[in-house]
């Protein structure tokens, strides 16, 4: 059997930031990984103002993702690969880090091409909803690709992590041994990984906090101040935890209340994230989320509004929309023309 090797499936803002840590950590790792770290890049031609050329060529020549993580030097062993099947060939550890909208199609391409025994780790913040069925992406990846899959989420604004400012993150592992290997690939002095046995809790925190971050952006757009923002975070955390406990087995309250994946990611996203930023612009301008995403994010993708829609359709199918008034308000404001100022109507009932 050959050496173990890692591949990153995705190369946006977060995928590129993570490639910097993983690229370094695999060079001197007790597990003796292959030194080359392939990163699948959804190929595109850059605008002239970014210098033109294919994104993969530019990453491999400059060792910088000039579109999604400009100004950050990537390790030279990180190699951009435009063909996803070529990127994953021979890899035994796969890191999935795509906007959730694109995972389904990517999995279809990968089916039948992943070797048995491969381990996965998803960094994707979102959930898969089909009518009255909901599943976390770690479960989807496990079922569709036949591999074991853990989940990483935390208070991790990618640009700050890439600049090596201190942050924490949480890995929910399938089994402890796998968790330890993932930690050896991703932990660093400035990016502290905690391991817990709660894959669903970690995944749900990452998905649901994006809905709350949209609500926080509405509060900023309304200029209602810090007390109102704190109220939205409290209520949002209650709904996140209640949702996890109601619809998933073995989810732990402590993941929501004590981990970086839970309360800390909620706070950073409500203060500094892209969902917050675009929702603030929505409240100020009345333009749609799609329009604002294009205007404000330079090709990066929003997750919060889409997740609010998906969660709303799931809750409708379960006749439980009214039990989650903040999630309901975010969906109706974003998609159904409800007045932004009604964001707090009926929400303060939510209790821990
Ligand atoms: N950016 C952050 O600060 C951050 C931090 C933690 C977690 N996350 C999560 O990581 C995941 C990935 O987000 P990101 O910020 O790295 O991405 P991004 O929003 O920065 O970039 C969009 C990416 O989507 C790719 N893309 C565009 N069209 C595509 C298609 N048709 N098929 C496949 N890929 C396509 C682009 O090439 C680009 O890599 C998301 O779930 C996000 O919530 C992001
Ligand atoms: O910028 P956002 O809103 O997509 O959030 C980024 C990360 O999830 C923060 O941990």
TrEMBL record:
Superkingdom of the source species: Eukaryota
Keywords, sorted A to Z: NAD, Oxidoreductase
Enzyme Commission number: 1.1.1.8
GO MF annotation, one: glycerol-3-phosphate dehydrogenase (NAD+) activity
Domain Glycerol-3-phosphate dehydrogenase NAD-dependent C-terminal, first and last residues per copy: 198-344
Enzyme class name: oxidoreductase
Residue numbers binding substrate: 125, 274-275
Reactions catalysed according to its record: sn-glycerol 3-phosphate + NAD(+) = dihydroxyacetone phosphate + NADH + H(+)
All residue ranges annotated as the Glycerol-3-phosphate dehydrogenase NAD-dependent N-terminal domain in the record: 6-177
One GO CC term, this protein: nucleus
Annotated catalytic residues: 209
Binding residues annotated for NAD(+), in chain numbering: 10-15, 42, 102, 158, 274, 301, 303
Gene3D superfamilies, A to Z: N-(1-d-carboxylethyl)-l-norvaline Dehydrogenase, domain 2, NAD(P)-binding Rossmann-like Domain
Family to which this protein belongs: Belongs to the NAD-dependent glycerol-3-phosphate dehydrogenase family.
UniProt-listed PANTHER family: GLYCEROL-3-PHOSPHATE DEHYDROGENASE, GLYCEROL-3-PHOSPHATE DEHYDROGENASE [NAD(+)]-RELATED
Name of protein: Glycerol-3-phosphate dehydrogenase [NAD(+)]
Annotated source species: Filobasidium floriforme
Taxonomic lineage of the native organism: Eukaryota, Fungi, Dikarya, Basidiomycota, Agaricomycotina
């Amino acid at each position: 059997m050959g050496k173990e090797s890692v591949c990153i499936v995705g190369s946006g803002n977060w995928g590129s930031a993570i490639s910097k840590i993983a690229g370094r950590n695999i060079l001197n790792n007790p597990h003796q990984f292959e030194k080359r770290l392939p990163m699948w890049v959804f190929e595109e031609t850059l605008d002239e103002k970014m210098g033109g050329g294919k994104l993969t060529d530019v990453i491999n020549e400059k060792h910088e993702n000039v579109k999604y993580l400009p100004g950050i030097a990537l390790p030279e062993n990180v190699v951009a690969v435009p063909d996803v099947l070529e990127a994953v060939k021979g890899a035994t550890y796969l890191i999935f880090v795509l906007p959730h909208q694109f995972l389904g199609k990517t999995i279809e391409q990968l089916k039948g091409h992943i070797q048995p025994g491969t381990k996965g780790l998803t960094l994707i913040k979102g959930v898969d909803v089909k009518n009255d069925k909901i599943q976390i992406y770690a479960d989807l990846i496990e079922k569709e690709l036949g591999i074991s899959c853990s989940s990483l989420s935390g208070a991790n604004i990618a640009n700050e992590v890439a600049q090596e400012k201190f942050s924490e993150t949480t890995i929910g592992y399938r089994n402890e041994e796998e968790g330890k290997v993932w930690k050896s690939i991703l932990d660093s002095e400035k990016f502290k990984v905690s391991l817990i046995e709660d894959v669903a809790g970690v995944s749900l925190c990452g998905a649901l906090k994006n809905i709350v971050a949209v609500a926080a952006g509405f509060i900023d757009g309304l200029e209602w101040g810090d007390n109102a923002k704190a109220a939205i975070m409290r209520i949002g955390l209650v709904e996140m935890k209640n949702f996890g406990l109601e619809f998933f087995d073995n989810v732990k309250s402590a993941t929501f209340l004590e981990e970086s994946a839970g309360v800390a990611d909620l706070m950073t996203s409500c203060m500094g994230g892209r969902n917050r930023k675009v929702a603030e612009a929505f409240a100020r301008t009345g333009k749609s989320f799609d329009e604002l995403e294009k205007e404000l994010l330079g090709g990066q993708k929003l997750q919060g509004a889409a997740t609010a829609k998906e969660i709303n359709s799931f809750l409708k199918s379960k006749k439980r929309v009214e039990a989650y008034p903040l999630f309901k308000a975010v969906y109706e404001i974003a998609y159904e023309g409800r007045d932004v100022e009604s964001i707090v109507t009926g929400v303060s009932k939510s209790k821990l």
